């Protein structure tokens, strides 16, 4: 009578052992799969604000990161000097027929140089740009993508600053942005726009300002009755203010973040040109440098700004990004004049941002001139002279201005490309255009979340390659 019971015990023991072994095997497989999906090493191509930010976020997650930068130092091209503004409230896609029609400046007067006319890639980019500008619904979708990334990046920036403080110092200066209007109808339309409603819902409402209030907030602005410069303020009708924005020095920040990243184990290789990306069986196997040296890693990130499309093409990845050139002037107020405390954007005059203790960074102009990296002081001077009439007569010490020019990587829909390509271990973070500084925090965080299989902080499909 005990044999059947013993038989059950034996059978039960065997069954239990089988279940246990199956569970153990499943657990090991799950762990192996998890380990495989969690990269231990990464190569980030590009040492600008986007590449360094991406390396930092991956290093915080325990990834051993190597940054490969073609120039002799990091943050030396578009991340060396830019417009300085952190422009969350102004986030919108350039690829919009409405934006182009209503903006009297940059895009409407964009110069296309011979280098671009002779470049087939410019025509491909332009076709994608106009497709997104004209097809109903696309511009609105792209505007919303810009706003979502701006909001997410703002949150990431604030968290980083609260945690790290002076380690990531950036000379944050402007207290907010004032956008000026020279047409009452345009001002009314803006206050009722999706852009204004978006930031109102986030707690950063645009406040309308009369001309008097604009001048009280920034007394250095020229009044409508004052003739100053070639483009004066005679038709100024008012403005709007938004406290979400600020300004800072992109070069200072990028260099400080790089130091923090190096403490986390990031290796930064400068003066190293990537000659070729090697791929096999649906994955990148390594990169070959001009020196012949080969580097390998579990994952690879293209964050090389305007050089990103050429790298992508080597392995069959299409990145519709093209360089658009901008020009900057850094100038000081004349001795005894009050400093500017806010970013000022006037579609008529351009954009100016303060940098402590007493500098003004003026940015403007859009040119498609191919890969012309030349710094052109004469064009920087034109940008500054256009801004002259915004201020009271003689405000800027224009004789002592410094100039810079850079190429901005603009995607055909003017929405950044962030995510995984069709190759299993190749990712991209590029195409931010004029807003790379503003979007850098959110872009790096989002890509790190995608690479590490974390829950993305925003809708990642909006930015997928």
Secondary-structure blueprint of this entry?
Blueprint: H1 2-37, E1 41-45, H2 49-60, E2 64-68, E3 85-86, H3 97-102, E4 111-112, H4 114-117, H5 120-134, H6 138-164, E5 177-181, H7 184-191, H8 194-201, E6 207-209, H9 211-217, E7 238-242, E8 246-247, H10 250-263, E9 267-269, E10 274-280, E11 283-289, E12 294-295, E13 299-302, H11 308-313, E14 321-331, E15 343-346, E16 350-355, E17 359-368, H12 377-388, E18 402-411, E19 417-420, E20 426-430, H13 436-451
Task: Explain what you see.
The protein is built from 13 helices and 20 strands. It has helices spanning 2-37, 49-60, 97-102, 114-117, 120-134, 138-164, 184-191, 194-201, 211-217, 250-263, 308-313, 377-388, 436-451; strands at residues 41-45, 64-68, 85-86, 111-112, 177-181, 207-209, 238-242, 246-247, 267-269, 274-280, 283-289, 294-295, 299-302, 321-331, 343-346, 350-355, 359-368, 402-411, 417-420, 426-430. With 465 residues, it is an alpha/beta fold. The radius of gyration is 26 Å and the shape is globular. A hairpin with a 3-residue loop joins strand 16 (350-355) and strand 17. Strands 4, 5, 6, 7, 14, 15, 16, 17 and 18 form a nine-stranded mixed beta sheet that branches. It has a six-stranded mixed beta sheet with strand order 9-2-1-13-20-19.
């Amino acid at each position: 009578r005990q044999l059947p019971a013993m038989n059950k015990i034996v059978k039960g023991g065997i069954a239990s052992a089988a279940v246990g072994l199956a569970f153990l095997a499943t657990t090991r497989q799950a762990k192996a799969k998890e380990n495989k999906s969690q990269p231990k090493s990464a190569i980030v191509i590009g040492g600008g604000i986007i590449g360094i930010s991406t390396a930092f976020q991956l290093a915080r997650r325990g990834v051993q990161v190597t940054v490969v930068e073609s120039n002799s130092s990091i943050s030396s091209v578009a991340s060396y000097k830019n417009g300085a503004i952190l422009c969350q409230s102004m986030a919108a896609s350039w690829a919009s027929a409405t934006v182009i029609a209503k903006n009297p400046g940059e895009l409407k007067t964009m110069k296309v140089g011979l280098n671009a006319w002779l470049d087939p890639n410019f025509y491909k980019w332009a076709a994608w740009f106009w497709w997104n500008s004209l097809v109903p619904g696309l511009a609105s979708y792209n505007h919303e993508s810009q706003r979502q990334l701006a909001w997410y990046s703002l949150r990431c920036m604030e968290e980083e600053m609260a945690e790290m403080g002076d380690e990531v110092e950036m000379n944050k200066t402007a207290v907010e942005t004032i956008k000026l209007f020279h047409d009452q109808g345009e001002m009314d339309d803006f206050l009722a726009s999706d852009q204004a409603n978006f930031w109102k819902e986030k707690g950063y409402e645009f406040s309308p300002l009369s001309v008097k209030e604009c001048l009280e907030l920034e007394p250095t602005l020229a009044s409508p009755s004052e003739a100053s410069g070639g483009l004066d303020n005679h038709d100024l009708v008012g403005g709007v203010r938004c406290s979400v924005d600020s300004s800072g020095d992109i070069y200072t920040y990028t260099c400080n973040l790089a130091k923090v990243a190096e403490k986390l184990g990031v290796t930064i290789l400068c003066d190293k040109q990537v000659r070729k990306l090697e791929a096999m069986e649906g994955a990148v196997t390594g990169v070959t440098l001009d020196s012949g040296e080969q580097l390998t890693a579990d994952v690879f990130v293209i964050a090389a700004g305007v050089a990103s499309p050429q790298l992508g093409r080597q392995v069959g990845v299409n990145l519709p990004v093209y360089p658009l050139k901008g020009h900057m002037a850094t100038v000081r107020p004349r001795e005894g004049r009050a400093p500017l405390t806010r970013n000022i954007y006037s579609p008529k005059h351009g954009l100016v941002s303060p940098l402590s203790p007493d500098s003004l960074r003026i940015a403007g102009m859009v040119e498609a001139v191919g890969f012309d990296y030349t710094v052109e002081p004469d064009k920087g001077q034109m940008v500054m002279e256009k801004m002259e009439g915004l201020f009271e007569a003689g405000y800027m010490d224009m004789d002592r201005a410094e100039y810079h020019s850079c190429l901005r990587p603009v995607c055909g829909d003017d929405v950044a490309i962030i995510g995984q390509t069709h190759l299993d271990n190749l990712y991209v973070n590029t195409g931010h255009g004029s807003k790379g500084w503003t979007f850098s925090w959110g872009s790096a965080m989002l890509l790190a979340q995608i690479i590490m299989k974390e829950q993305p902080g925003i809708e990642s499909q909006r930015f997928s390659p």
